[in-house]
Design goal:
Number of domains: 2
Helix content: 25-40%
Largest sheet: 7 strands, parallel
Distance between the termini: 9 Å
CATH topology of the largest domain: Rossmann fold
Number of helices: 13
Structural class: alpha/beta
Number of strands: 13
């Protein structure tokens, strides 16, 4: 069977699809991936045949995909939530399509078109965190979220103190917010690893002892070893921390992050500070609560167990022909 995957050309929108795409390839299917070339390297490294349709870079339009569908004649199109054009192009070509989620169903008004109900969705969000309206109306195919990071030789600093991971993702964050969070976390006496993303490391200035900052770290490798994750509330980091059973302190900045923060807090797996509430002292107080109270860790581990019971990418890949 020939399968075409397609997504917006960013880490947050492409990486959630890679585990299933790899599993489909390993199941013997021929896999191609239509996406802007910013994310071609990890796709090519996994044998997923990436290509850039037409002149697209980040977003892809149905008209960009239509000649590629005629050329490849795929049996199935898997398109992520951020790319409704994939659904339009597949429907016009008479090819079955599956929506692939990147986390919790996002609210309206964040710059993405909310998928229309009725179509089948590959849902990587555990039901306890998923939007109740989506759970009640969608044709869901459960799929375990598997964090993906590009391979590297990077290792976390060793030591006996608890390890805290701080990130504001690749699209959000400022040096001011990162340094405020670092000041708050330094008071814990923990080891702190900071992924600065779009903020140059030098803009953080001199870092306290025990704090390591890199532009990028292999998050999927790091998360199983952390005692606490402090982050922006992006879907990938939220689900990755939940899968690892790690409590979270969320500092939402925009997009779907506020809804994610509210859902994690409601599940008892974390706490959140909205932008007007953030200070070094508030970060310290909330982090101490998360590290010191067993209830947050137990709630996070309960969600981790729920995620572990979801069908793996390999299991779902074996059933892809059922949707053709």
């Amino acid at each position: 069977m020939r399968v075409l995957f397609t997504s917006l050309a960013s880490v947050g929108h492409t990486y959630p699809l890679i585990p299933l795409a790899v599993a489909a390839r390993e199941a013997g299917h021929e896999v191609h991936y239509a996406v802007g070339d910013a994310v071609h390297a990890p796709l090519a490294a996994n044998g997923l045949r990436p290509f850039r349709p037409a002149d697209s870079f980040y977003e892809i339009y149905a008209e960009d995909l239509e000649p590629e569908l005629a050329r490849l004649e795929p049996d199935l199109v898997v398109h992520e939530w951020g790319l409704p054009a994939g659904a339009v192009a597949a429907r016009r070509a008479g090819i079955p399509g599956l929506w692939h989620g990147f986390g919790r169903m996002f609210p309206e008004g964040i710059g993405l078109e909310v998928p229309a109900p009725g179509a089948p969705h590959l849902d990587i969000c555990p039901p306890s965190l998923q939007d109740e309206g989506f759970l009640a109306t969608a044709d869901r195919i459960a799929l375990r979220p598997v964090p993906y990071s590009t391979p590297s030789g990077w290792t976390a600093p060793s030591g006996s103190r608890p390890l805290v991971y701080l990130t504001l993702g690749t699209a959000f964050g400022t040096a001011e917010l990162l340094t405020t969070a670092v000041r708050g976390l330094t008071a814990l006496g923990a080891r702190v690893v900071v992924a600065t993303g779009r903020v140059p490391v030098r803009e953080l200035g001199d870092l306290p002892d025990g704090v390591t900052a890199e532009a990028w770290v292999p998050q999927a490798d790091l998360l199983p070893n952390v005692a606490l994750v402090v982050h922006h509330g992006g879907s990938g980091t939220t689900l990755g921390a939940l899968a690892a059973g790690a409590p979270q302190l969320l500092l939402p900045q925009g997009a779907d992050q506020f809804a994610n923060a509210d859902a994690v807090a409601a599940a008892g797996a974390g706490l959140s500070l909205h932008p007007t509430e953030v200070s070094a002292d508030a970060v310290t107080d909330h982090a101490l609560s998360l590290l010191g109270r067993a209830g947050h860790r137990e709630a996070a581990r309960a969600v981790a167990e729920e995620i572990a019971l979801m069908p793996s990418p390999a299991e779902v890949a074996r059933r892809l022909p059922d949707h053709v």
